[in-house]
Amino acid sequence: MAYIVGILRVRIRIPLCHSLKEKRGVLRGLENHMRKKFNVSVAEIGDQDYWHSAELGVATGSTDRDIVDQTLHKVVGLIEREGDLQVVDFEVEIL
User: Fold this and answer.
1) Beta carbons within 8 Å of 15's beta carbon, 6+ residues apart
2) CA gap 21, 49 in Å, rounded
3) Residue 34 Cα distances to 2, 14, 18, 27, angstroms
4) Three-class SS state of 43
5) Do 42 and 34 touch, CB atoms closer than 8 A?
6) What is the largest CA-CA distance in the chain?
7) What's the Rg (C-alpha) of the chain?
8) Rounded mean pLDDT of 54-81?
9) Where are the alpha helices (DSSP H) in 1-95?
10) Is 16:52 a contact under the CB 8 Å cutoff?
11) Beta-carbon neighbour count of residue 71 at 10 Å?
12) pLDDT at residue 1 tops 90
């Protein structure tokens, strides 16, 4: 039985942040919410020095390709439902 790994790369806009410290707090809360709700690994992988944007990498795995794909798309939906965040772009890769 093969193990499937899915990777999500998502760029988000955080228009109401006024400092890097504030951005880190917003992202920390979002990352913890994603980890608890979907049991995924999350890391900030780009735009670390910009107040109003972030690039996150999210990974998950399963023996079922559909579950991996659905989980990553649900993560995007969660981010889109966050009031002060906007999804600019995202890419899902299944390995």
Assistant:
1) 52, 84, 86
2) 11
3) 25, 17, 23, 10
4) strand
5) yes
6) 48
7) 13
8) 97
9) 20-38, 65-81
10) no
11) 20
12) no
CB neighbour list of residue 30: distance below 8 Å, 6 or more residues apart: 79, 82, 85
What six digits make up the tokens of 22? 């504030």
What's the pLDDT tens digit per position in 2-45?
A: 999 999 999 999 998 999 999 999 999 999 999 999 999 999 99
pLDDT of residue 82: 86
Q: How far apart are CA 77 and CA 80, in angstroms?
A: 5
Tokens for 5?
A: 């790994």
Higher-confidence residue of 75 and 84: namely 75
3-state secondary structure of 55: strand
All structural domains of the chain: 4-94 (3.30.70.1120)
Strands 41-46 and 53-62: antiparallel
Taking the C-alpha atoms of residue 3 and residue 90, their distance in angstroms, rounded to an integer, is 23
Per-residue DSSP letter, 1:
-
